[in-house]
Amino acid sequence: MTEEIYDIAIVGAGAVGISAALAFARDGYKTVLIGNLDARRDGRTVALLNGSVRFLEALDVWPSLAAEAAPLETMRIIDDTGSLFRPPPVAFTAHEIGLDAFGWNIENATLVEKLASAAKSYDGLTILPEQAAGFEAGDIAATVSLSSGETLTARLVVAADGRNSRLREITGIEVKTWAYPQSAVTAILAHERDHRETSTEFHTRYGPFTLVPLPGRRSSLVWVTSPENGKRLADLDDASLARAIEHQAKSLLGAMRIDGPRGLVPMSGLSVSRFQAPRMALVGEAAHVFPPIGAQGLNLGFRDVAALRDAVVDAHDNGLEPGADETLQQYQRGRDLDVRLRTAAVDGLNRTLLSGLIPADFLRGAGLLAISHIGPLRRAVMKEGVLPHVGAPRLMQGIAA
């Protein structure tokens, strides 16, 4: 395509990929984003936790998102497993840890649209609406082959091309995948009662049933259930599905109706043996996939980007270029423990719900009781869930420079 060398090439134009392009272009790196800037509405939303909101503020994107998002001021957990050790409902409020909200819930497609709009208007950011077909690392740069047959070179390539990452496959990074005996029904709902900025998660024997606020008397649904029940629910008409959701929610928000797109997603997980290869870093679902529990998925992807940005900036300060081995080793060290601990925590919680074994139920119930009644533990867990303070990337601490 051209003989010029980009500093950074990002492959994949989802929320994580676009945010990476904005973050590096903002810092003055010659950046190219490879992918189609489009978003399909499928009834899925994302709860942007406090650290992710700070990250989007640093990218100057948050003002365009705020009016489309609803604050999550209270997070309520209700055990609906029928367990002998069922704890009472637990509610966590953001003001306990000095925040107005744990985060903000927004439709995923709206988030991508606003990020794409910012990218299109950003000087110094090149956008190529193509697909990456190949990758080859070199001594001073990597070569990316495009679907058009053209090529480009970059000091560092960021693979943000999703769970089926072509670039990850080319580099030979080992992947572990697993499936759960679950599917997630997603939908946008309208309801007759105010949600009062409260996210409610029912722990059922088949997985969590979660209602998350949207602006107005609207909420998003993630109903994790068995594949058979998921298919049955997906086959219902809108009115019948709304009644089934109201029944499962114990009429907490009154009568409901479907007020947007619906989806059905098989539940699975993915982990990688390493987060980097020569001249390449993995971010987002190219690096990790797990069930939609605890709002960790996309937030973890944004944390990947912010951590990689820190590694690149630190390398520059030490006279190194973005794709240097030292840069990628710093990124590997920064992501390894964080991603693996959160993957294990989400996987462990999900499997205790599915097991039905008395010891697992006892441990889960005892844990919720301890968090509910021990103030310092309760606040520590809330802070860790919203943003880990040890090793948090600078853009997620409000440090914009």
What does this 3D model show about the protein?
With 401 residues, the protein is α+β, with helices and mostly antiparallel strands. The chain has one domain (5-177, 269-397): 3-Layer(bba) Sandwich (FAD/NAD(P)-binding domain), CATH 3.50.50.60. The chain has eleven helices and 19 strands. It has helices at 15-26, 50-58, 62-65, 108-120, 166-171, 227-234, 238-248, 297-317, 325-355, 358-373, 375-386; strands at residues 5-11, 31-34, 45-49, 70-72, 74-79, 90-93, 103-107, 125-128, 132-137, 142-146, 151-159, 175-191, 198-204, 207-214, 218-225, 256-272, 276-277, 280-282, 288-289. The strands form three sheets. Strands 1, 2, 8, 9, 10, 11, 17 and 18 form an eight-stranded mixed sheet that branches. A hairpin with a 4-residue loop joins strand 9 and strand 10 (142-146). Helix 1 packs parallel to helix 4, helix 1 packs parallel to helix 8 and helix 10 packs across helix 11. The mean pLDDT is 87.
